[in-house]
């Protein structure tokens, strides 16, 4: 019986999708937290919370790109 190549393991795909989801959530929560701190410091401006969430999202997307590059081995195709 042949063992399937490690690239075709479905658990590897599950781990990748879980890591991407967890990464986005953690980055957005960190952005919310930083935005809330900035909002309290600036006197309660909610736009800073929104800015923090957006910044967290952008950091999360960048991190997902790094995860996918690591998963694909850095290839472009």
Structure, described:
With 77 residues, the protein is mainly α. The chain is 77% helix and 0% strand. The longest helix is centred in the first third of the chain and has 32 residues, at 10-41. The protein contains 2 helices and no strands.
The separation of the N and C termini measures: 31 Å
What is the count of DSSP helices, taking H or I runs of 4+ residues? 2
- Give the SSE order as H and E letters: HH
Note the main sheet.
none
Could you give the count of β-strands? 0
Instruction: Report the radius of gyration as a whole number of Å.
Output: 18 Å
Oligomer: single chain
Percent strand equals: under 5%
Structural class: mainly alpha
**Poorly predicted runs:** none
* Fraction of residues in H or I helices: over 70%
Average pLDDT taken over every residue: 88
- Shape descriptor reads elongated
Brief digest:
The chain has helices at residues 10-41, 46-72.
List keywords for this structure.
2 helices; 77 residues; single chain; mainly alpha
Q: What's the topology here?
A:
Elements (H helix, E strand, L loop, with lengths): L9 H32 L4 H27 L5
């Amino acid at each position: 019986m042949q063992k399937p190549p490690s690239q075709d393991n479905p658990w590897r795909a599950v781990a990748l999708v879980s890591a991407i989801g967890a990464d986005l959530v953690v980055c957005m929560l960190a952005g919310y937290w930083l935005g809330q701190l900035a909002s309290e410091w600036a006197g309660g401006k909610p736009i800073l919370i929104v800015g923090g969430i957006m910044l967290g999202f952008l950091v999360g997307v960048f991190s997902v790109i790094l995860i996918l590059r690591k998963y694909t081995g850095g290839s472009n195709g």
